[in-house]
Amino acid sequence: MDFDVGARLRELRAAAKLSQRELASRACVPHGLIATVEQNKSSPSIASLRKILDGLGVSFVDFFSVDSAKAGQMFFAAEELIDLTSVLTGSMETSRGSMHFRQVGDARAHNLQILHERYEPGADTGEAMLAHASREGGVVISGELEVTVGQAVRTLKVGEAYLFDSQIPHRFRNVGDEPCIVVSACTPPYL
After folding, report:
1. Under a CB-based contact definition with an 8 Å cutoff, are residues 60 and 69 in contact?
2. Tens digits of residue pLDDT in 111-160
3. Residues 184, 51, 179, CA angle at the centre, nearest 5°?
4. Distance from the first to the final alpha carbon of the chain
5. Closest C-alpha among 132, 137, 138 to residue 168
6. Backbone angles phi, psi at 154, to 5 degrees
7. Can you give the CATH number for the domain in which 149 is found?
8. Domain CATH for 53
9. d(CA 177, CA 60)
10. Residue 54 counted as domain residue
11. Which residue among 78, 125, 152, 175 has its CA within the 20 to 30 Å range from the CA of 68?
């Protein structure tokens, strides 16, 4: 699934009757960021996109709402998972390594987001810690993942898991030499 972040942002900004400068001011981000994202010249980090969406009063789930999930669908083939990768990681696919996120079904309809996550070696959600009004947990399926929650830091290996209040600032990094696979859940949905 290809998702046009710039077009979606432009659509929501126009619907809110905000100029790029007004949105930048509300979101506490540089005006140039709004312009480059809308033109698809850059992809914002998750933290920057969160600020922009907060300025619009829009959640990640609503921003990336997917109309293709079939009502009542209970089982999903691998190719039916919703690829959020291009919409969330564009600017992160640098020297830090890439991240890939695939969502099971319609998170908003179930008030539960289940993700299959892949972190390449060096992948990092960024120094700007994430924080949102949710609870989240996950299990490492392969590789290893450093998870920081507040002041607590731990590198989780295969079979180990995390569960925490997402309002506490947090960060995920693959500090290993192999890709890391995680299956996670978040409620209410965040991404």
Report:
1. no
2. 899 999 999 999 998 888 889 899 999 999 999 999 999 999 999 999 99
3. 35
4. 16
5. 132
6. -150, 140
7. 2.60.120.10
8. 1.10.260.40
9. 31
10. yes
11. 125
